[in-house]
Design brief:
single chain, 344 residues, alpha/beta, Arc Repressor Mutant, subunit A, Rossmann fold, seven-stranded mixed sheet, three-stranded antiparallel sheet, 15 helices, binds S-adenosylmethionine
Length: 344
C-alpha cells in the first residue's frame, strides 16, 4: 500500500478534531475571553484567568488553542510571558456588541445543538430528534415546548436567531428588486432583525413581523437604536390564526423546520391571503440539486427535526403546488440563499 497523501491525512485529522475546535470556540466565547481582550488587549494568561475566574493552567491552554485556530494572536517579548489580542476574525464575529456578532448563535450551538449532536448515533438509529435524551422532556412542538419553555431558554433562542439574521439579513434583503412591494409580512420573523434589514434596504417598504405571542412580547429587547417605525409586530400562530395582509410574504428559515404536511398548511394559508402578483420570498440554505452539499445544510439535517432540508427545485415545486411561480433564485455568498416567487 502507498503512504497516505499528506493532504488526505490532514483532512481526516481536521475532521476528527473539528469538535474540539468548536468546543474551544464555544467555551472561549461563553467565558467572555474575546470581549475581555477587546477592552484590555495584551493581557497574559494569568491576568485573563483572574478576570474570567478560571485556572491559570486551563486558561493558558484555551488561549493557546485559540491562537492556533486563528482566533487570537500572541506576542512574546524576550523571555516574558505571552500576551494575547483578538484577531480581526474574532473582533468581527465574536464580540457581544459587534454589528455582525455571532455570539448568540454560538451560545445556542453550545447549549442546544451540542447536546443534541452528542446523541447523534441514537438520532440516526431512530430517525428522530433527541430532545428528550438531551433535555429530559418530550416535546411535540419544538418551539413552544423546548426553545420557549423558560424565559431564559427563549431569550437564548431569540438571541441566536437575532445574530444570524443580522449577519445574513442584508444579503437576503438585497437579493432582489422589491420596489413593487409596499407592505411585507415576515412570518416567524422573531426579533425583527431581518425586518429591519428589509426596511433599511427598501425605503418604501413597511414590514409586519408575525410570530408567536411568547416571542413578540420580548421584541422590544431587540429594538435597534435607530428605527423609523416601519417595522411592527403581530402575535399569532401561523398554522392557526389569520395572517396579516401584505403584498410580500417572507419565510426565512421557517420551512426547513416542518414536515411537508405542515408546510402545506402554511403555504395554503399564505396562498389564500395573496392576490395575483403578491410575492413570497423564501430564504433557506438551498441544497445542491444532487444533494452533495453544502455540508452546512446536510449537517443541520442531522439534528433530525420534524422538518427537512430541500433544494431550490424542491422548494419551487412545493410553492408551485400552491400557485406560486419561481421568479428568481439567488445563491448568496452569505449563510442563507433566497428565492422570490410570485402568486399567479
Ligand atoms: N425568520 C427568523 C430568522 O430567519 O432569523 C427566525 C427563524 S426561527 C428558525 C423560526 C421562527 O418561527 C421562530 O421565531 C419561531 O418563534 C417562529 N414560529 C415557530 N412556530 C410558529 C408558529 N406556529 N407561528 C408563528 N411563528 C412560529
Amino acid at each position: 500500500d502507498s503512504e497516505p497523501k499528506k493532504d488526505d491525512l490532514q483532512r481526516i485529522i481536521d475532521l476528527m478534531d473539528g469538535f474540539k475546535a468548536s468546543k474551544a470556540l464555544f467555551t472561549a466565547s461563553k467565558m467572555c475571553v474575546f470581549d475581555l481582550l477587546q477592552s484590555r488587549p495584551g493581557l497574559d494568561a494569568a491576568q485573563v484567568a483572574q478576570e474570567i475566574k478560571a485556572s491559570v493552567k486551563g486558561t493558558a491552554c484555551l488561549l493557546e488553542a485559540c491562537v492556533s485556530l486563528g482566533l487570537l494572536t500572541s506576542k512574546q517579548r524576550a523571555c516574558q510571558k505571552s500576551v494575547y489580542e483578538n484577531t480581526d476574525l474574532s473582533s468581527h464575529f465574536l464580540l457581544s456588541d459587534a454589528p455582525f456578532s455571532l455570539r448568540g448563535y454560538i451560545q445556542h450551538c453550545n447549549d442546544t445543538v451540542w447536546p443534541l449532536f452528542s446523541h447523534l448515533e441514537s438520532a440516526v438509529r431512530e430517525g428522530a430528534n433527541q430532545r428528550e435524551k438531551a433535555f429530559g422532556k418530550t416535546s411535540k412542538d419544538m418551539f413552544q415546548d423546548t426553545f420557549y419553555n423558560s424565559q431564559e431558554a427563549k431569550l437564548r433562542f431569540m438571541n441566536a436567531m437575532h445574530s444570524i439574521a443580522k449577519v445574513t439579513g442584508r444579503a437576503v434583503a438585497t437579493a432582489f428588486d422589491l420596489s413593487s412591494f409596499k407592505t411585507a409580512c415576515d412570518l416567524g420573523g422573531c426579533t425583527g432583525a431581518m425586518a429591519y434589514e428589509f426596511t433599511k434596504a427598501h425605503p418604501g417598504l413597511s414590514v409586519t413581523v408575525f410570530d408567536l405571542p411568547a416571542v413578540v412580547e420580548m421584541s422590544e429587547h431587540f429594538l435597534p437604536l435607530h428605527t423609523d417605525n416601519r417595522v411592527s409586530f403581530v402575535a399569532g400562530d401561523f398554522f392557526k390564526d389569520e395572517l396579516p395582509k401584505a403584498d410580500l410574504y417572507i419565510l426565512a428559515r421557517i420551512l426547513h423546520d416542518w414536515p411537508d404536511e405542515k408546510v402545506g398548511i402554511l403555504l395554503s394559508k399564505i396562498a389564500n391571503a395573496c392576490t395575483a402578483g403578491c410575492g413570497l420570498l423564501l430564504s433557506e440554505i438551498f441544497l445542491d440539486e444532487d444533494r452533495r452539499g453544502p455540508s452546512r445544510g446536510l449537517l443541520q439535517a442531522l439534528s433530525m427535526s420534524e422538518g427537512k432540508q430541500r433544494s431550490a427545485t424542491e422548494y419551487g415545486l412545493l410553492l408551485k403546488s400552491h400557485g406560486f411561480i419561481t421568479a428568481h433564485v439567488r445563491h448568496t455568498d452569505n449563510l442563507l440563499d433566497a428565492m422570490l416567487c410570485i402568486k399567479v
